[in-house]
Amino acid sequence: MVDHTPARDEVVLEAQGLTKRYGEREAVRGIDFRVTRGEFVGFLGPNGAGKSSTMRMIASTSPRSGGQLRMFGLDPANAGARIRARIGVVPQNDNLDSELTVQQNLYVYGLLFGLPRRHVRARAAELLEFVQLTDRADAAVESLSGGMKRRLTIARALVNQPELMLLDEPTTGLDPQARHLVWERLYRLKAEGVTLVLTTHYMDEAEQLCDRLFIIDDGRVVASGSPAALIGEYCTREVLEVRVPEEERPRVVKAASKTAARVDELPDRVLIYANSGERALAALRGDGLEPLNTLVRRASLEDVFLRLTGRSLVD
């Protein structure tokens, strides 16, 4: 693998007022972000928030409607081919060639970049080892499990030794073992100096992998920062989850609201945000309330996400 040595403060990707319109619909509404070399950055947002539109503009496959966008200091409007030669893209859905073997998928893709045949053969072997598919090199793509296909898609995106990797929901549908293997490989890429930009619906994935996050809702960036900083800014240290009979829920909400930073009433439970979940529970019991069951947990990125984007389902 290539060791990218330029300074970490080198700006690889930058947008100012980036906008994308589809007819009358504005999918991306003037967002700003900056990514430096070697960072692992995540875009989070509900369906329809504008994440995929943003990723397509970054990948230089969809023109922007307004604002500024630069990759490696280049404008994709007039340097798209040069940019694409330096990036790797893992799309949301695997688009491997089912008529080719595992190894041939890498080999043919490398030739599309105009790389020498000898180099592509060596690179394919290296990447198969990297994603632990060496023993499946001659297997048909259709014989692979979902996790194997995802790893092969990641390997294919690395054929041209990209400086910037774009990963659109790379672990959706994978079992925990496959997800963790993908995570480990992404950690290795970051350690080698590759810049990574991720979209995901898995909050634990974003919290585990990303240095910084941009939370997008309705085409706008509504918050940004490290996972820990976002949790610290938008949540209390702990969350008390309580389940009570439906008729007692209003009493719980009223009692908790006296001292809690925030109270969310859900159909099946009440979430009480407080710096000490145990003290919040003691306060409920002091008011004569005894929940059916309780859970005190650390506040998470999911709490931040739901606070900023809401709990309503978006289609």
Keywords:
single chain; 315 residues; alpha/beta; Rossmann fold; Alpha-Beta Plaits; 2 domains; 6-stranded mixed beta sheet; 4-stranded antiparallel beta sheet; 11 helices; 13 strands; elongated; disordered N terminus; ATP-binding; cell membrane
SSE blueprint and pairings:
Blueprint: E1 11-22, E2 25-36, E3 40-44, H1 51-58, E4 66-71, H2 76-84, E5 87-90, H3 102-112, H4 117-130, H5 146-157, E6 164-168, H6 176-191, E7 195-199, H7 203-209, E8 212-217, E9 220-225, H8 227-234, E10 238-243, H9 249-256, E11 262-265, E12 270-274, H10 277-286, E13 293-298, H11 301-309
Parallel strand pairs: 3-7, 3-8, 5-6, 6-7
Antiparallel strand pairs: 1-2, 1-4, 8-9, 10-12, 10-13, 11-12
Helix pairs in contact: 3-4, 8-11
Question: Strand fraction band?
Answer: 25-35%
How widely separated are the two ends? 40 Å
The whole-number mean of residue pLDDT values reads 92
CATH fold topology of the largest domain? Rossmann fold
Q: Output the radius of gyration.
A: 23 Å
Question: How many distinct helices?
Answer: 11
Highest-level CATH class of the largest domain: Alpha Beta
Relative helix content: 25-40%
Morphology:
elongated
Largest sheet: spatial strand order: 5-6-7-3-8-9
In CATH, what is the homologous superfamily of the largest domain? Answer: P-loop containing nucleotide triphosphate hydrolases
Total domain units: 2
* Structural classification: alpha/beta
Question: Uncertain segments of ≥5 residues (pLDDT<50)?
Answer: 1-6
GO molecular function: ATP binding; ATP hydrolysis activity
GO biological process, one term: response to antibiotic
Keywords: Antibiotic resistance, ATP-binding, Cell membrane, Membrane, Nucleotide-binding, Translocase, Transport
Subcellular location: Cell membrane
